[in-house]
């Protein structure tokens, strides 16, 4: 694996759920002169090969995480877009299964829980008693 690809993986590991620009900034600190488009291409390639997971909650830029190979979901703050992982309460088995799979061979369920994170709900006057 190239130095550039390793730097992108390291940045994704150090900055969970980071967007491409945040990863570019982190990689640029260790690989001076790397181009933004190069980082975008590497993110695409690493995602296509299953080394990164690309997530894109509706209304937000794509984010990347190194947690692949398991089935987990995400909590997304509607205000600041912070993302947290949500593990299944029943182990590694799917927590959701369609009643009728319509002939699909289902291999993934992508569930996103939306709300306000602790910091934003404290700042939101609607959340005050």
UniProtKB/TrEMBL annotation:
Give compartment(s). Answer: Cytoplasm
Q: Keywords in UniProt for this one?
A: Cytoplasm, DNA-binding, Iron, Metal-binding, Repressor, Transcription, Transcription regulation, Zinc
* Annotated InterPro entries: FUR, Fur_C, WH-like_DNA-bd_sf, WH_DNA-bd_sf
Q: What cofactor is this protein dependent on?
A: Zn(2+)
User: How and how many cofactors are bound, per the record note?
Assistant: Binds 1 zinc ion per subunit.
**Where along the chain is Zn(2+) bound?**
77, 80, 117, 120
Answer yes or no on keyword Ribosomal protein.
no
What do the Gene Ontology cellular component annotations say? cytoplasm
Listed under GO biological process in this entry are: negative regulation of DNA-templated transcription; regulation of secondary metabolite biosynthetic process
Q: Record's PANTHER family?
A: TRANSCRIPTIONAL REGULATOR FURA, ZINC UPTAKE REGULATION PROTEIN
Family to which this protein belongs: Belongs to the Fur family.
Protein name (Swiss-Prot/TrEMBL): Fur family transcriptional regulator
The organism is Rhodococcus pyridinivorans KG-16
């Amino acid at each position: 694996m190239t130095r550039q690809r390793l730097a992108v993986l390291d940045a994704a590991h150090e900055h969970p759920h980071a967007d491409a620009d945040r990863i570019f900034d982190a990689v640029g600190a260790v690989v001076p002169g790397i181009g933004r488009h190069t980082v975008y291409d590497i993110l695409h390639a690493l995602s296509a090969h299953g080394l990164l997971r690309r997530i894109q909650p509706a209304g937000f830029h794509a984010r990347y995480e190194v947690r692949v190979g398991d089935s987990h979901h995400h909590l997304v703050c509607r205000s600041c877009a912070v993302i947290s992982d949500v593990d299944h309460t029943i182990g590694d088995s799917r927590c959701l299964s369609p009643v009728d799979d319509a002939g699909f061979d289902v291999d993934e369920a992508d569930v996103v829980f939306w709300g306000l994170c602790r910091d934003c709900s404290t700042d939101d006057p609607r959340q005050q008693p």
